[in-house]
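From: lab user (bench 3)
To: helpdesk
Subject: output format question, protein + IPE

Hello, I'm new to running complex predictions and I'm not sure whether the block I got back is the full result or only part of it. Here's what I submitted:
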Amino acid sequence: MGNIARHIAIIMDGNGRWASERGLKRVKGHERGAEVVRTLTVHASNHPEIEVLTLYAFSTENWKRPKMEVDFLMRLLGNYLKKELPTYVKNEVRFETIGDLSRFSDALREQIETMKRQTRHFKKLTQVLALNYGSQDEIARAARKLCDSGEKIDAEHLEKHLESAQFGPVDILIRTGGEQRLSNFLLWQSAYAELFFTPTLWPDFGPEEFERIIEEYKRRHRRFGGI
Ligand code: IPE
Ligand code: IPE
Ligand code: MG
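Helpdesk reply: Thanks, we reran it on our side. This is the complete output you should expect:
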């Protein structure tokens, strides 16, 4: 009963603070965060309603961070993909991405493509990783394509050119880490998303809190502009 949780999107924030609170280097928080990604992906794949789980892993603005942290995140992503491919296969999870991958190394891009290829027939869950993703960049790229196509310029045609359109509108948007902002994530697809902000830092987030959010979502009254 209640609203259907088809597409859930998460802004995974708070890794750095989680580590600093423990006197650890920020990157330790990212390491722990990657484990939560795996746990939650497996959990979502066993959930009867969830078809898409989109996770914000690296924004177009995150390149502003110190090179050491950016390099670490790139290595972490490579290691995660290598290590977790069997997890995705076992749980029948299709791996996808949104974002401009052209700034990543050839080796990492190759790994991402391999992961997509080897999981593309799975249907239990589609897990979309937002990598070098920024909504404004995505919308600008779609606008350029729409102009080149010569099609009518309206919302329906613009949407067709958005990379994220293939995964459908977001039902639930969660941000961990206490900040209450979207930080350039899925602006178009979240037009009617139900928003949830939790103070829990991403490394401390897990299936239990995730399920509590879904429960609350089910009770919300979505009107989509109607009455
Ligand atoms: C989110 O955690 C992960 C990425 C942006 C890659 P942060 O690294 O932003 O952690 P805080 O917000 O500094 O605690
Ligand atoms: C948003 O977190 C990006 C990701 C979670 C990948 P940030 O930590 O980069 O966002 P701001 O800087 O607090 O807005
Ligand atoms: Mg942050």
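A quick orientation on your result: Residues 67-90 form the longest helix (24 residues). Let us know if anything else is unclear.
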